[in-house]
Amino acid sequence: MDSILNAAALALATGDVLGALNRVALRDDPEALALRGIAMSQLGDFTRARALLKQAARGFGRREAVSRARCLLAEAEIALVSRDLAWPPEKLEEARTILLHRGDVANAAHAGIIQARRHLLLGRLDRAADGLAMLAPESLPPALRAAYWLVHAGMDIRRLRVALARQALVRAGQAAGQSGIPALIAEVDAARRSLEGPAALLRRRGVETAISLDEVETLLASDVLVVDATRNGLRQGGDIIPLSTRPVLFALLHALGDAWPGDATRETLLARAFHARHADESHRARLRVEITRLRQLIAPRAGLSATLAGFRLIPRSGDVAVLAFPLDDQNAAIMALLADGELWSSSALALVLDISARTVQRALGQLQHAGKVQAIGRGRAQRWSLRTLPGFPTTLLLPEPG
């Protein structure tokens, strides 16, 4: 690597994107094209970045396998950040293998972290953990070590292991500080603030309070019977009865939980479950059927008792609480469906929630603007998921300066 390329690589490694571009903007050799591609990705122009990296990979040819693998690695991270899950993951594994066998241990570890981030994005927590277990964080460069601990924190948050997530973010902050990259330091700080802020609303005996993720973890480990509107299920002591695919039954359970220790009237249940403004006998007949189904489903944890006005939830043990997102009911219902880690289309969400596709798209736009959900793919292939906390910076390891 000549002195100009070396200076450009060092500038990128310290976050000076414009300084790197000033040095290589007029060059078209493969090394310069690769650095320009990485610089453009850090400026957010992913389309141009991918085109430059493809051109660089062609220019390196088959004899320069390590350089080609580094270009593939950068392409894989750009695909991940732009949520292009159609990019073939086997190419990333191929690049990781080449880098590992040719002695580029740092970039091979970077590929492993990208693989773990992809699994985390798709809700495959066990596979993400297996990928991180193959890495030794203490041997990684500071920027990569920060990325490693951010992924670790993301897994711990998804599993509601808040103390471990906080420890991981402390380690990520230390590594980011050692890297000296402002964007990486800001990313870790943002993740810390998100972890410490209110995570949900707790409704208990008619009182509603905002609670932190630590308090959510404590609540779900207790003997309180929790109607969990953040994941659409009934939870107690670590056990869960999932209802994410039974929206009518969960709507009834949610209304019963909100009314506890009193009863929920039939009119309330009809409005919450069937959106019935003017209930007729067919609605009442359907309510009786769905109440019977709900009673059978939650029997291990609670019973249902008919009252003069409606129905009452009776826990087998403990108190009753409702856990919900601090949002309006419609947006909260969408986020609860997305919380299972699967990718949802807007049409599927509309079908399950029994609302118009346009209403769902408008709600998703609001949630995306608020940073709570993320779109993956484009056009008819577009899918939606919760925005995994913490966020992930584009680290993009560069060829080592020579």
Summarize, please.
By secondary structure, this protein is of the alpha+beta class. The protein has helices spanning 3-13, 17-24, 30-42, 46-60, 65-81, 89-101, 105-121, 125-133, 142-158, 162-179, 182-196, 213-221, 247-259, 266-274, 281-297, 329-338, 346-353, 357-369; strands at 198-204, 207-212, 225-228, 233-236, 239-242, 264-265, 302-306, 310-315, 320-324, 373-376, 383-386.
Walk me through the structure.
This protein is 58% helix and 13% strand. The chain folds into 2 domains: 3-196, Serine Threonine Protein Phosphatase 5, Tetratricopeptide repeat; 225-318, Arc Repressor Mutant, subunit A (Orthogonal Bundle), CATH 1.10.10.10. The protein is elongated and about 85 Å long. The model is unreliable at 389-402 (pLDDT under 50). Helix 1 (3-13) runs antiparallel to helix 2, helix 3 (30-42) runs parallel beside helix 5 and helix 6 (89-101) runs antiparallel to helix 7 (105-121). A hairpin with a 6-residue loop joins strand 10 (373-376) and strand 11 (383-386). By secondary structure, the chain is α+β, with helices and mostly antiparallel strands. The protein has a 6-stranded mixed beta sheet with strand order 2-1-9-3-4-5, sandwiched between helices. Strands 6-8-7 form a 3-stranded antiparallel beta sheet. A two-stranded antiparallel sheet has the order 10-11. The protein starts with a helix and ends in a 16-residue tail after the last strand.
